[in-house]
């Protein structure tokens, strides 16, 4: 039987290590989350970004302003509504996300290589299940 409490603890522990794997430019978790969301979902309005991030609007507005100043995010008019803006990654922001991913792949590969063949097979079998859990979470209000 699946021990969801233990699963939750293991995922929390893994996430703590996983988010720190890249040695490429360190940013806080909220900044990284915004960058990764914009990378995966494309240009978004600030109100749409509020739905995915666990921040209040003033904090997110401030964070986006900082990311703009750092040259990682840009605003442009929303063609569907001239009063609104769309947020997207700049080329520098895209490169940062890409380099962090590449660095994370290399470091995780080194860890995975330390697993036994049976452990690697179990891990490989879990990829689709974790993907499905992520999809279910995104579809749940």
Automatic annotation (TrEMBL):
Residues 1-132 form the HTH marR-type domain. The keyword Transcription regulation applies. The keyword Transcription applies. InterPro entries: HTH-type_Bedaq_tolerance, HTH_MarR-typ, Tscrpt_reg_MarR-type_CS, WH-like_DNA-bd_sf, WH_DNA-bd_sf. PROSITE patterns: HTH_MARR_1, HTH_MARR_2. SMART domains: HTH_MARR. Keywords: DNA-binding, Transcription, Transcription regulation. Pfam families: MarR (PF01047). One of its GO terms (molecular function) is DNA-binding transcription factor activity. This is MarR family transcriptional regulator.
